[in-house]
Structure formats: C-alpha cells, structure tokens
Amino acid sequence: MFASSSTLLQVPLFLVALFAARALPALLYRPRLGDRRTAAAAFLQATTLPFVVAAVQIGERLGVLPAASGAALIAAGLVSVLVFPAAALALLRDGSSPVPVTPAGPMMPQQSRVDRA
C-alpha cells in the first residue's frame, strides 16, 4: 500500500465514498432527530470494516480488484472504525439536549400495559 502514492491517495477517496454510501440514508431521520443527532447517526452508520474486508477478499479472489486497491479499501474501513464513532460522540456531547431514552429504547414505541401482558 505504501509503495505507490496513488494507492495512498485512494484511502481518503474510499473513505468519502464509504461515508456517502452508508451515511446518506440517515437524512431520513432528520425530521425526527434534528441536525446534530442526524449527523451523529450518519457517522455511526458509515462505520464499517467487516463488509469491506469480505468485499475485498471476494474481489481479489475473482481477480477484479488489485491488491493495492484492496489494501486502500481496508485502510479506509479501518479509518472509519477509528474516526467516525469519535466524531459521532463529539457531536452528541456538544448538543444542548440529551438523547431521550425511554424504557423501550430511544426510538422504540412505548408498550402499553396490554402489550406487556
């Protein structure tokens, strides 16, 4: 991976692509969660490594993914695991209102007494 500068430049490109592909669905939460918590959800959704590792192994075995690009993809996945959760926590800590948590969970509907029986 470090032998070629073009491979090293692929890491941030793949990181942005991972974020875009996996974080964009979080925009659906925006009306319910607000901007800050939606951004935190986007970072948490974009965190990925096992899927990337599996995809790289399959691509390399099929001969459609060069080893250098596979290494860059795995590096981008590793960076996402290290950086994105920290960014999400920082966003949540800076928020003025705490995340509401009910006994059923933060986004789960409350069960009535009839449902519990």
- List low-confidence stretches: none
Q: Helicity level, as a percent range?
A: 55-70%
Largest sheet: none
Number of strands: 0
Average pLDDT works out at 85
Order of helices and strands: HHHHHH
Question: Can you characterise this structure?
Answer:
It contains six helices and no strands. The chain has 117 residues and is mainly alpha-helical. The chain is elongated.
Structural features:
117 residues, mainly alpha, 0% strand, elongated
Concise structural overview:
The protein has 117 residues and is mostly helical. Helix content is 68%, strand content 0%.
SSE topology:
Elements: H1 5-23, H2 30-33, H3 35-46, H4 50-62, H5 67-94, H6 113-116
Helix pairs in contact: 1-3, 1-5, 3-5, 4-5
